[in-house]
Write a structure and sequence with these properties.
The structure is a homodimer. By secondary structure, the first copy, chain A, is an alpha/beta fold. Chain A has ten helices and 18 strands.
């Protein structure tokens, strides 16, 4: 929560017609985050993961600061170009691409692509000849709060074959990428993945390919309820791991922060629609907000991400009681926290505004178009 | 799959620029479904659950056939009115409502509201004076494929107090509602809930309130992979349960089919973007489609709903192998079926079009606005 966001919300409340939940992102915080990444990893290029928050204001700010961009689709590439970045600062980092989308990306000037299998290499060789490709390898996600499935990446041994296939088809076998899991709270998580990456570098070298780059992925956490290590701590741990596994031949590196770049810059303001019990003698109250899983808080899925919530009833003497927290739709799956109820002041009332912090990433674009007739999350970038 | 949908898709393919997944809904099937409900439960009014598919074409068709409408928000009320139904055919069935939304619904003419606690009654007494309210009671969901949480409803004993509170505030204590769980495959599931409802009727009678109506909710299934009983079987089982618990004083009844009205009317056509393995000797292939959890298939959450999928490689002699099925976004949670892999022909190839059946309900409006830059699901109602 920043003074600028607080002031913005005060003005918004003065406009009585301005109802419904909204996300407010403080661009000054995004700027600080970018500069902290740049400082903590001075030899590493920052590719902002656009999917975390593709708002034009965020992209324009980061383009101006010199950031590069990791995109998931042609639409995201177009947004980045519109924000003023050139195509040589863009990677298409999605390992799942239609060949015609690769062709469109190539036509727009993009020359850096992620792959994790030979079929994907074939598409790029045909539709984006001569481009650089990096192969994503699987890595475990111990320590991540939003661990990744095996959806992206291949086993390291297969990566060598995939890169050799690319090399044979005239592509530049450029490097390796991995992802240690989103909201990774352990700075040492990169160590094991870098050991695998170094092994792939050696195996490729044995086959006559000199890889240049390691994409360290994202995973940098934002502060929710628990404290997280500083970006500086991540930078130091990653540098030590690079030294350990690559010795004096440290490759070019890039990082892809998304949540770490914008998560803590945003606050969602929501309204308490109802506080109720299911029977007279229930211990747990149900608190219903005007935002839920389908309005932007999709990452509460399985209660993985636990956002800090501020209410106007907070205070040193506020008595708390456990609440089940739910969204406003008629979908019974639209419950945010139930397995571990959320403690909120017992004085909380219908109509109270609550602030859901750390919501600058992976919220607005997850909103459903119109489920139950509710509009997508309003956003303001200030 | 109907001949009309097949023909529509053939024409669409002829237009080479028409890419991306789409939902096609055959309105003739919706009409048949409505008429089957009307026939199976001749004394019951049908309130179509608009949230299942709020497309103007569906609403206009059903308004013309004489259906009533269960809505979740003011926006849905406005859509129904725009489709030509009058306000006396609309209920606001969401138990979680802002008071200003109740006021707007009242101004639009709506006089029938769902509640499940006294606080909600207070709002309606203030913002929609004199209206009818029905109280939702909790019921178990044994037999449902998409079981409901305790999010909506209160214990039956509390419902009597809630209705008495409404009565004292000048509202009409109109009846009881319950929901036996979505995709309920057991026609006898209504029996136990009707026993509870009858008990509330008696207790209210003892306190001088004569309830009139039982809202039997939705839950009527659509056929996915397993066969489901006919609507006629549901009608007969419900009628017997009403007789058993209400004797000769059978109340007015309404039903709220959503999935049962539109689910089997829709087919999503998607494209295979990638087929790959994670290592050379993997048993399971990964098949990536251009639609996933955030593009309309949200109900694959926890792999609850298992859609039938047709491919151009099907056939009596097609050899099948288990696949993990995933969507196109860079979100590792965007996996449709993994715990129980989906058997698909081993000859399936990149670029193949697949048909995902039974997708007329709870798909298009769940689409995210733009996650990863992907557009919301295109829809065609023919």
């Amino acid at each position: 929560m920043t003074a600028r966001i607080r002031e913005f919300l005060r003005d918004r409340h003065a406009n009585a017609n301005d109802h419904g939940p909204c996300l407010v992102v403080d661009l000054d915080v995004v700027r600080d985050n970018y500069q902290n990444f740049a400082k903590a990893l001075p030899d590493t290029r920052v590719f902002y993961a656009v999917k975390a928050n593709p708002a034009a204001e965020v992209l324009t700010l980061l383009a101006g600061l010199g950031s590069c961009f990791d995109t998931a689709s042609v639409a995201e590439i177009e947004m980045v170009l519109a924000a003023g970045a050139t195509a040589d600062r863009i990677s298409l980092g999605n390992t799942i691409k239609k060949e015609r989308d690769v062709a469109r990306a190539y036509a727009l000037g993009v020359r850096l692509y992620a792959v994790d299998c030979q079929a994907e290499v074939d598409k790029i060789a045909r539709a984006a000849p001569g481009s650089r490709v990096f192969c994503r390898i699987l890595s475990d996600c111990v320590g991540a709060e939003w661990p990744l499935s095996r959806k992206f990446g291949c086993e390291p041994a297969m990566a060598v074959d995939v890169l050799e296939h690319a090399h044979r088809l005239g592509l530049e076998a450029y490097g390796i990428s991995f992802h240690v899991g989103s909201q990774q709270r352990n700075p040492h998580a990169w160590d094991r993945a870098l050991a695998s990456a170094a092994a792939v570098f050696r195996d490729c070298g044995d086959r006559g390919m000199n890889l240049s780059m390691v994409n360290l992925g994202g995973g940098f956490p934002t502060k929710y309820l628990k404290n997280v290590p500083t970006v500086k701590a991540y930078g130091a741990a990653i540098f030590r791991a690079l030294r350990r596994h690559f010795g004096n031949r440290i490759p070019e590196t890039i990082i892809e922060p998304g949540r770490g770049m914008v998560g803590n810059a945003g606050v969602i303001e929501a309204e308490v629609v109802l506080v109720s019990k299911k029977s007279e003698n229930d211990d747990v109250r149900w608190v219903y907000l005007d935002i839920g899983k389908f309005g932007g808080l999709a990452e509460t899925m399985d209660e993985s991400i636990r956002y800090p919530i501020r209410t106007p009833r907070d205070g040193r003497d506020a008595e708390l009681a456990p609440c089940v927290l739910a969204g406003p739709t008629c979908d019974s799956a639209d419950v945010l926290y139930e397995k571990v109820p959320y403690p909120l002041p017992i004085s909380l009332e219908i109509g109270d505004k609550v602030l859901i912090e750390g919501t600058g990433a992976y919220t607005a674009t997850y909103s459903s178009v119109a489920f139950n007739g509710f509009a997508p999350l309003q956003t303001f970038h200030i």
